[in-house]
Amino acid sequence: MRSSIQFLLTLLAVVALALLLRYIEQETGQFIVRLVALAGIWIVASASLNLVNGTLGILSLGHSGFMLLGGYVVTILMTPHVAKLRVIQAPIGLGLVSPWVLDVNLNWLTTNQHLQFIICLALGGVVAAAVGFLVGAPAFRLRGDYLAIVTFAFGEIIRIVLEALSRISNGPLGYSGIPTLAKGLWWTWGTAGITIFVIAQLCKSSFGRALKAIREDETAAESMGINLFRHKILALVISAFFAGVAGGLYASWLAAITPGTYTFSLTFLFLVAIGFGGLGSITGAVLGALVITFLPELLRSLEGQQVIFGQTVQIFGLRQVILSLILVLTMIFYRRGLMGYSEFHWEWFTSRQFKALFLGRRAQVLRSEELAQDAWLRRSEQAPEPKQEA
Q: What is the predicted pLDDT for the residue at 176?
């Protein structure tokens, strides 16, 4: 009975979210729509990074490299022939792009652009996952934080290599004219929903419990019969797959791509998201992704000209300073992020903590109002009566 009620509540929440997205897409401006679409992409990237950094407990710093691979796969397969031809005919790009790149597309399979986009996203994820296996295979044979060093180097090397392989990537110039399907909310938030569902089911399975055991104590997990290498490499492959999908969505969202689009600053952004929301919590990853998307825009006005003590000054980079300060304060007071290892569930609303938090505060407000009213009545009773004139 309880599970059926929770399923019904989840279904109602999904329907409410769909109605909200439809309202945003039809009733708000293009800027808001693009920003909400970007939030969906960041949810995919943050949730996938959290699988390795949070659930498995091993630091990975190459997420932007996997996104770069997925972005270029989607770009080469989806960019129309005419747009590629403009690149090769441009004076600065003459002879850079190989002719075979112009003919790479999925028109032989289907002419439906939406179906092509689904296939391209999947292929981008597969390529990123394959490279993730090649990166993680030697690193996971070692102990310690070697994966962080290897993945950081991978993220920088793959960007430099793609800049050098100008016949495929068009060098630092990149490509433009990518179909902008990812600007639609249904693509980004639909992919985010699939990502959350898949990773949540993995975390609830025996595979997820094994990852958590490895996070707590590798030696104890190995003594229990858990294959450390297999579980670690599989977690990295899954994380890289969804990172490639997020990279493809981001390329479509931008409608252009260069190797410099996917720098380490993206990886740092997602580290902030999962560090703020909660390492090892999918709910925390979603919460952190929303914060890193909308909070910088809310703080954008602070970087304009401000009047301080009668002087007009302009402070650049103030948004990044505030984001870093929020992360530092979160790490001080919530060492594992706001959510920690916990996840959202409907039983929250019937728990003692929820009642104490919300109902208790309401009781305090009502009590303070009663005390204020009693004090006013006492003052009115003690006030001297006005003298009557003869």
A: 82
